[in-house]
Design goal:
By secondary structure, this protein is an alpha+beta fold. About 30% of the residues lie in helices and about 30% in strands. The two termini are about 30 Å apart. Pfam families: Peptidase_M42 (PF05343).
Length: about 300
């Protein structure tokens, strides 16, 4: 869990993923010598802050978004949401502007619901603020801000250790409308002919998806994937014996939305561990679901 702890401590709000991208590139350069297959690493201005890793003869791509929710400083001590963060008075927020490091407190106007901050000085407009990271681990759970989607990134990195054939994609902007997967998917389809995907992201604990009962395979959210593809994934999961559960929701989305709307015939399925306290500083995931998520990805990338 040390890698996950490190990932959660690196701020990467949508649109400002650079620090996390730089960490991943350094991590990949250091660790790939220990991986079963050495990937081709595609990064740089052509891909903005995204990274594509190509292993062997790929058939399937895994998408994991780097970015997180947060807040942008506006004027007059106002804050604007990045994505959909939970907002409770008293949350600790951190950031940095040209005057130095920032640790302030979130405020919420009782009448208007307007967001602001308490700090010893005015923070420069345009500064991004993220939740203060308090990473907590027990024998059964991990709890922190930004498990969505640092845990999806962790899963993708651990998958790289044993992956022989496949593509692993680290995307940007997912929490605030997306935008990067459109050009990443186009490049992957046109260059490698790959058109099936798994979404390595984190879903919600609900009345039908419970912690500790295995990774969730989503049959639908606000979008509906092609049933023939999802059925194949269910069959592989059932045959593997790996604990899993099926999710059916009418809301929510992921990087899959840009695959669904692409001008290429992409198949996709969201496969991720469920978390509680969504988009708050206290997101929590059962370790058994983390284990089953990685195990199922390893099997799916062999079988699909």
């Amino acid at each position: 869990m040390q890698l996950l702890r490190t990932l959660c401590h690196i701020p990467a709000p949508s649109g400002h993923e650079t620090r996390l991208t730089e960490f991943l590139l350094q991590y990949i350069a250091t660790e790939q010598k220990n991986w079963q297959t050495t990937p081709q690493v595609l990064a740089g201005e052509q891909f903005q802050d995204c990274i594509i890793l190509v292993f062997g003869q790929p058939r399937t791509a895994v998408f994991a978004h780097l970015d997180s929710i947060g807040f942008t400083v506006r004027y007059g001590r106002q804050l604007v949401r990045i994505g959909g963060p939970d907002a409770e008075p008293g949350y600790r927020l951190v950031g940095e502007d040209t005057q130095g490091p920032i640790e302030c407190t979130l405020t919420v106007d009782e009448e208007t619901g307007a967001l602001g901050y308490e700090f010893t000085r005015d923070i420069e407009r345009g500064t991004e603020l993220t939740f203060f990271c308090d990473f907590r681990e027990t024998d059964a759970t991990v709890q922190s801000c930004y498990l969505d989607n640092r845990l999806g990134v962790w899963n993708a990195l651990r998958l790289c250790e044993t992956l022989e054939h496949g593509i692993v994609v680290f995307s940007c902007w997912e929490e605030h409308g997306g935008g990067s997967v459109a050009y990443l998917a186009k490049y992957i389809y046109e260059t490698y002919g790959v058109r099936q995907a798994l979404i390595s992201d984190i879903t919600w604990v609900t009345e039908g998806v419970r912690p500790g009962e295995g990774v969730a395979i989503s049959l639908r959210d606000s979008l509906i994937p092609r049933r023939a593809y999802v059925d194949r994934i269910q069959q592989i999961a059932a045959a593997s014996g790996i604990p899993h559960q099926l999710e059916v929701e009418g809301a929510g989305g992921s990087d899959a939305k840009e695959l669904q709307h692409a001008d290429a015939p992409w198949d996709w399925c969201f496969v991720g561990a469920p978390e509680d306290n969504v988009h708050s500083p206290d997101e929590i995931v059962d370790k058994r679901d983390i284990e089953s998520m990685l195990a199922l990805y390893q099997v799916l990338m062999q079988e699909l």
